[in-house]
Inverse folding.
């Protein structure tokens, strides 16, 4: 973990599965200064493999967080937490189970996006913040932003879900299942009991390779690799995917992959409601929804479903589909247009709170 990551312990957290996880720890980082009225706080929620280190050198959203950037730390107090079930400081399957003195492994309870948000709310309460100016994130982060708006409408003034969805499609679930099966087929996975032993690197690497394909677009892969060969035995795209897979093994836990992807698949904002519009009825936040033309993992129609549902309830929502050839990764690399949109949206939200 980066040196400025902080860990806050809590006695317990009640989970949607009916179990209680006790104790529980949450890792978080902050950037900028919280004003006296505590009205300038923004929560950044990360995508599947992210962590609390969103801003600063090496941060996964360094291009968007900092002085003068979209999430301007000269104006705003930015917070990012590592999700429940993660492996970068927050309690997850690699953490020690107090009942056994050993890592949880597959004994870790089933978690949901709602559980992740519940722990984030505990962190925000710990910081003494009663209402966030905004919750923002891409991909799985967008799911959390939507969950915040529905679960804690009084605690968030605006939400910015980017390249996201209100529920996974069959195709999205299918890709996650291929990754899970790749991990569990690795003999070194050992039913999840690999801690202190050889890691299931082959399975986790293949899972990441499959996932990475979905993050790119046909255009971006053609431009980056084409059919160029690295040598007589390997195409450039093969070399790239193998590198990405091996790199992922060094920083991510295979069991966290299983639990977090399942939480994403279980997420359904309409659960228990007749329509998506009904599910969003409780939300009182302003919304900025962003999608990208070449994103085939989280295609624009899913963002448009959210926007249409919000408009049916007369919610304050702005929507923009940005042109990009980068696929799903566009939310991480298409900085200029996102910055303009986010900067204006946050400024008007802050003005409305004064």
């Amino acid at each position: 973990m980066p040196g400025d990551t902080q860990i806050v312990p809590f006695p317990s957290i009640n989970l949607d599965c009916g179990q209680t996880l006790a104790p529980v720890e949450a890792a978080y980082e902050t950037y900028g200064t919280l004003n006296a009225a505590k009205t300038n706080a923004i929560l950044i929620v990360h995508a599947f493999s992210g962590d609390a280190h969103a801003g600063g050198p090496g941060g996964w959203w360094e291009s968007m967080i900092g002085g003068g950037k979209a999430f301007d730390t000269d104006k705003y107090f930015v917070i990012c937490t590592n999700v429940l079930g993660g492996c970068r400081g927050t309690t997850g399957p690699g953490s020690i189970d107090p009942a056994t003195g050993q890592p949880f492994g597959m004994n870790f309870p089933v978690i949901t996006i709602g559980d992740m948000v519940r722990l984030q709310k505990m962190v925000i309460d710990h910081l003494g913040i009663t209402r966030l100016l905004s919750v923002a994130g891409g991909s799985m982060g967008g799911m959390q932003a939507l969950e915040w708006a529905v679960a804690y409408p009084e605690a968030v003034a605006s939400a910015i879900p980017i390249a996201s969805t209100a529920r996974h499609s069959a195709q999205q679930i299918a890709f996650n299942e291929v990754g899970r099966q790749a991990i569990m087929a690795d003999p070194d996975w050992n039913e999840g009991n690999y801690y202190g032993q050889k890691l299931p690197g082959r399975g986790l690497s293949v899972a990441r390779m499959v996932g990475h394909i979905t993050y790119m677009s046909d255009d971006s892969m053609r431009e980056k690799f084409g059919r160029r060969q690295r040598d007589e035995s390997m195409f450039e795209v093969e070399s790239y995917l193998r590198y990405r897979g091996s790199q992922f093994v060094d920083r991510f836990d295979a069991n966290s992959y299983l639990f977090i992807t399942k939480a994403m698949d279980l997420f359904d904002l309409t659960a228990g409601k007749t329509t998506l519009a009904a599910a969003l009825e409780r939300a009182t936040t302003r919304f900025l929804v962003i999608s990208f033309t070449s994103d085939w993992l989280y295609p624009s129609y899913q963002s448009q479903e959210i926007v249409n549902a919000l408009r049916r309830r007369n919610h304050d929502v702005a929507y923009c589909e940005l042109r990009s050839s980068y696929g799903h990764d566009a939310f991480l690399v298409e900085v200029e247009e996102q910055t303009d949109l986010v900067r204006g949206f946050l400024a008007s939200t802050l003005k409305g709170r004064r």
In short: The chain has two domains: 6-168+269-353, 171-264. The domain at 171-264 is CATH 1.10.1740.110 (Rna Polymerase Sigma Factor; Chain: A). The mean pLDDT is 96. The chain is about 35% helix and 20% strand.
